[in-house]
Amino acid sequence: MKTVQLSIELPNMVTATEFELKTLLASRLYEKEALSLGQAARVAGLSKRAFIEILGNYQVSIFSEHESDLRSDIANA
Question: pTM for the complete prediction?
Fold first, then answer.
């Protein structure tokens, strides 16, 4: 993984912490299938288990919408 330094100006009314911004970014990238679950968890700085729990806060399902992915998950369970 590479490290990216990012500076974002937010209005004063936005009180999000660095952790909240990282988890939001990671959850959206996971939702868009740009990152795997493990990669997204690392971006957020969390274990997979903790990241899965946080995904619910962002209404992101851990289950793929693609039938082939679901069949693969079931076969590997």
Answer: 0.76
